Amino acid sequence: MRPSSSNSLPGNHRTDWQAIRSLLPYLLEFKWRAAFALGFLVLAKVANVGVPLALKEIIDALDAKQAVLMVPVMLIVGYGVLRLFSTLFGELRDAVFAKVTQRAIRRVALQVFEHLHNLSLRFHLDRQTGGVSRDIERGTRGIGFLLNFMLFNILPTLLEIGLVAIILLNKYSIWFALITFVTLIIYIAFTLFVTEWRMVVRRSMNDLDSKANSRAIDSLLNYETVKYFGNEGYESRRYDENMQRWEVAAVRNTTSLALLNAGQSFIIAIGMTGLMLLAASEVVDGKMTLGDLVLINVFMIQLYMPLHFLGFVYREIRHALADMEKMFGLLHEHQEVADKPDAETLNPANAEVKFEHVSFGYGSDRQILFDVDFTIPAGHTVAVVGSSGAGKSTLSRLLFRFYDVRQGRITINGRDIRQVTQSSLRAAIGIVPQDTVLFNDTIYYNIAYGRPEASHEEVIAAAQAAHIHDFIESLPLGYDSMVGERGLKLSGGEKQRVAIARAILKQPAILVFDEATSALDSKSEKAIQAELRSISQNRTTLVIAHRLSTVAEADVILVMDKGRIAERGTHRELLLQEGIYAQMWNLQKQEEEKQKPY
């Protein structure tokens, strides 16, 4: 059974604080950059707090009661310098810290990408590509936001609040500090309460957004099927149903945000009014100068503006954490097939493959193979035939270790494939699958994918061996021709020849042909069959086929029926047995006779 999906609430896998702590290693990687950035942050805030103090001195110096006869040039210059420094140090902070943020995003995105490739085939058969891609996109964006705003908005705002509090307590009545702190406490409590309530709406938006994106990508990937059945309207309605639910959640998100902003503004307005009334009465009583009134007003504006932004930052951090939940959930997906700590590298030379009493099922209620036992001697070819659903293709999936067997074992040169590294196992095996899916890149790229370090001449030789070189040369762009999404610009036969060329280029010790010529016409099939026989010489080869004429020359033919090996032997021996194989052979011969032109 698969573990809980990534839709789980954060408490099931990782709390918000664990998510934050997981980013600390990326800060420590550039600790000097982080230290310099924090230094610039402190300097910027000190300069910012100094601006109102300089402004007070300027106003008091210009007050007629002070009888100053000249413009306070030095004070004004100092005011300008402080203004400059409050911005300049902030920009230097961002410039120094940029590499830390971008490296963290890159590292986490790579970690998720690699983990997804290490997950089992079972996970990838269940996943929805659009939803997963959107989860990763939002999650990495959330990391950047979290690093920047936690360090450079929450921390400096708290620092500025502390500096202002010290100045108010030292210079003025305690009532100024008291009103300020009561307003802050009410503001923060209101923000936390409403933001937590809004998180439910945000999570709902994320889920619906991922579902709508998955629906759109799935529909576009199956463009031809949609067109075949004229279901454009049906697909649009299904997509719009998801978007309609997203719209409701998005409206709730916006209206609740408006409520939060209005509440915050109301609290700040009450606090500012109280402070200004108190300051005005102090000026009237002669206890404070006009410059003091301006100082307190500017302090409050400087304090409440970042505080108002702090509310936004907290909301966005909570949103970022929600966005990161699913991405971190992907990292916690169980790796069903994993290398053992002491796994060794497989030596595939003269590979002998054995399936020893293998039983397997994709689920407890779906048994596929029952006590399958056979050997492919080094350099020999064993073919597996049978009706659809007999378990033939499951053999290749188990050999590649996309799944682990439940009973029995599979060995190569006597080594259980669960005891060797997956990379060395798969490097030793080349496959030509029945359904060839290509990358949306050039034909050259798709052939070279079999061995990316291969030379240009080797790629061309592989294409010639697969009898596709002449076709490629006839294209306007030759080997630089794009194959389209999933190779849809090529015919089934052309795609399969690319897959054959790719397998040839890999030069594996073990070959698997899974219905390798099923998409070819009879003439092409005969040409390719001769080439397949040539490349499989001196290689251990497993051929999975439905068309029996393609396996007649195999050293041993296994006939599978309902997950069991029902018959085994050479082509001639199986015909003499007059069993399942003989019946299949006769039926296919009759079909071929019917298809011959008169």
Describe this structure as you would to a colleague:
- The chain is an alpha/beta fold and 598 residues long.
- The chain folds into three domains: 10-331, Up-down Bundle (ABC transporter transmembrane region fold); 341-428 and 508-598, P-loop containing nucleotide triphosphate hydrolases (Rossmann fold, 3-Layer(aba) Sandwich), CATH 3.40.50; 438-505, no CATH class.
- Helices cover 64% and strands 11% of the residues.
- The protein contains 20 helices and ten strands.
- The protein has helices at residues 10-13, 16-21, 24-29, 31-62, 73-118, 121-126, 129-171, 174-221, 223-228, 232-284, 290-331, 392-399, 422-427, 443-448, 456-465, 469-474, 492-506, 522-536, 571-577, 580-595; strands at residues 353-363, 366-376, 381-386, 407-412, 415-416, 429-432, 510-514, 540-545, 556-561, 564-569.
- The strands form two sheets. A six-stranded mixed sheet has the order 6-7-8-3-9-10. The protein has a four-stranded antiparallel sheet with strand order 2-1-4-5, with helices on one face.
- Helix 4 crosses helix 7 (129-171).
- The protein is elongated.
- The two termini are 56 Å apart.
Give a brief rundown of this model.
The protein has 598 residues and is an alpha/beta fold. The protein contains 20 helices and ten strands.
Numbering strands along the chain, what is their spatial order in the largest sheet?
6-7-8-3-9-10
Q: Tell me the number of helical segments per DSSP (H or I, 4 or more residues long).
A: 20
Total number of strands: 10
Whole-number average pLDDT? 78
Q: Please report which band the strand proportion falls in: under 5%, 5-15%, 15-25%, 25-35%, 35-45% or over 45%.
A: 5-15%
Molecular shape: elongated
